[in-house]
Amino acid sequence: MSDTTNGQKESIDKSSESLDVAPITEDAVFGKITEDGPNYRNVGWIGTTALMMKTQFGLGVLAMPGILDTLGMIPGVICICAVAAITTWSNYIVGAFKLRHPEVYGIDDAGALMFGRVGREVCGFVVCLYWIFCMGSGLLSTSIGLNAVSAHGTCTAVFVAVAAIVSFAVGSVRTLGEIKWVAWIGLGCVFTAVMIVTIAVGIQDRPTTAPQGGIWVSDYKLVGRPSFDKAVSAVSSIIFAYCGTPGFFPIAAEMRDPSQYNRPLLLCQGGVTAVYLIVGIVMYYYCGSYVASPALGSAGPLIKKVAYGISLPGLVVSSIVVLHFSSKYIFVRILRGSDHLVSNSITHWVTWLGCTLATTIAAYLIASGIPIFGDLVSLIGALLGTFMSFQPMGCMWLYDNWASGRDRPTVKWRILVFWSVLVIVLGFFLMISGTYGSVLSIIASSKAASGSSAWSCVDNSNS
């Protein structure tokens, strides 16, 4: 055993991760893994938990109180739990599909198995576009944080550019095993900031945007009466908060032992759902319709600065992780089957840095072109999130189980067939209707005299 491998094993001992897995020298996706290049199969289940939770937990939690304001407390909680259940099943299917088909790296490979070349190209294009849009929302939220902390120290477009540069620098690290520590930092920062604001809104007299005279009583609603377009737009925002599903493919592909996938999955989904519900309910209960979007601005100027200051690393990490996902997809697609994929050659580095740079530029253009946080989150969830987190997973279960159960169908098989078809149909309905509602909201927001326009220098932290 080499010194490098021994060093890796000692590191694993210290992190309390499993040592039952022999060093990996050959992978169905990456080919031969040697000491002369990056080790893409070096993430244990603890690191996987951090990556999963940072993929799911971040920007979405900032929209939860506003979602409850639109739908009402009770329908909102029901919708959050329903989306959590569906996406937990979808994420489980990702792990099961990877174990059955080790050659699968991303959702495009799954699409190719099920639908051939057309499936590969459609899924590949959508997932790449999805991650770029997610990075754009991360850059936008980072600019909001920089504006809040600096009291609008410079043009917002400059802050977006700064966030893009930092994300490019860190996101260009080549393996998930090397950036999992960034996920831990990001997760801790966002969680701490959100908890500070949640506690602050509970002890303050009233939201700063509420009328300051007289007795304050929160105007929260148990049941809302939104229009159809506003309701589906709110549901789309919930989907965005849970639609890290396509990121679970590359995470599983870089796990040291993919058979341990379900453990971090359940920790991730359970923890994220609990935080979403606590933050959403508490903030909305105390702030009512005066809750800010993003939610970190709900407890007054001082707490707003403190919360954004703490959360800034986490907001940047959100961009870093999705930048890595989108760039790695393109990179693997270009160099797969080539020795350059796992080497330190010039071709390897030029291709990798070219992918990260192109993704960063595209995300910057999106963040600057749609500068309204809530609308961008809703559009991503509706147009791309459902298509990445609902329909393919229903098809994946049918692909693996339809033939084996058709001859002698059991009750369990029939129920799961019905469930898979339901997820597919529901995904298409939410994608079409949610996109319609999101587009109407973007048009309305653009017409409003809020000062938020494409490539604007106006302070975007005063929502």
From TrEMBL:
As for membrane topology, the entry says: Multi-pass membrane protein
Q: Where are the transmembrane segments?
A: 73-94, 122-144, 150-170, 182-203, 231-253, 265-286, 306-325, 346-367, 379-399, 411-432
This protein's record includes keyword Transmembrane: yes
Pfam families in UniProt: Aa_trans
Q: Spell out the InterPro entries in the cross-references.
A: AA_transpt_TM
Q: Where in the cell is it found?
A: Membrane
Which molecular function term from Gene Ontology is one that the record holds? Answer: L-amino acid transmembrane transporter activity
* Record keywords, A-Z: Membrane, Transmembrane, Transmembrane helix
Would you name any one GO CC term?
Answer: membrane
- The Amino acid transporter transmembrane domain sits at 43-439
What family does this chain come from, according to its entry?
Answer: Belongs to the amino acid/polyamine transporter 2 family.
Q: Which PANTHER family match?
A: AMINO ACID TRANSPORTER, AMINO ACID TRANSPORTER (EUROFUNG)
The protein's name is Amino acid transporter transmembrane domain-containing protein
Instruction: Give the originating organism.
Output: Aspergillus campestris (strain IBT 28561)
- Lineage, uppermost ranks: Eukaryota, Fungi, Dikarya, Ascomycota, Pezizomycotina
